[in-house]
Amino acid sequence: MTETRRLFLSLAAALLIPLLAGCDGFPKDIAGTMQNVKERGVLHAGIVADGPAEGEERALAERVAQATGVKAEFEVGSDEVLLRRLEDGDIDLVLGEFAKASPWKKRVAFTAPAEAKSPSAHEPVLRAAVRPGENRWLMFVQKTLRQKA
Questions:
Q1: Ramachandran region of residue 62, left (φ > 0), alpha (ψ -120 to 50) or beta?
Q2: Residue pair 120/110 in contact by the 8 Å Cβ criterion
Q3: Are 31 and 134 in contact (CB under 8 A)?
Q4: Residue 92 contacts residue 45 (beta carbons within 8 Å)
């Protein structure tokens, strides 16, 4: 190996190592939802009351809480009220039946359906909503919802 090539590789390694170390923790949560839930020891979950799967929604919220190592507290209400409280950061996630084409999709981040299926854009299916920008939290919730109990 030539001296120039060795110098180039050393310089490249010196530059890349700090960059790779900075990648720890990706994806990130802008507001730190996952960390806040863990520090608080409580998952504040909204359950949409008008959905026929309210028991299933509670079970999924319990599964997310258990996977996070915290207890779950529930607030039951309409999707409109709960999604506004989610936007304001008062609750950590909302579980209910939402269509992919929901008018809320520009204001909150929805998981894929809790069950592996491909509904039409206007068919409401059970899924969770989190605050936008909470990418680590969204991925964690999505993965937990899709795991079999």
A1: alpha
A2: no
A3: yes
A4: yes
Per-residue pLDDT of the chain (149 residues; tens, 9 = 90+): 677 766 555 555 555 444 444 445 567 889 999 999 999 999 999 999 865 557 889 999 999 999 999 999 999 999 999 999 999 999 999 999 999 999 999 999 999 998 877 888 899 999 999 999 999 999 999 999 988 65
User: Both tokens of residue 73?
Assistant: 């507290």
pTM for the predicted model, two decimal places = 0.78
* Residue 75, token pair as written in the block: 């607030």
Edge to edge, the sheet with strand 71-77 lists 71-77, 42-48, 93-98, 125-130, 109-110
H helix intervals, 29-129: 33-40, 54-68, 79-87
26-29 contacts, C-beta under 8 A, 24 or more apart:
26/136, 27/135, 27/136, 27/139, 28/135, 28/136, 29/133, 29/134, 29/135, 29/136, 29/137
Cis peptide before 27 (omega within 30 of 0): yes
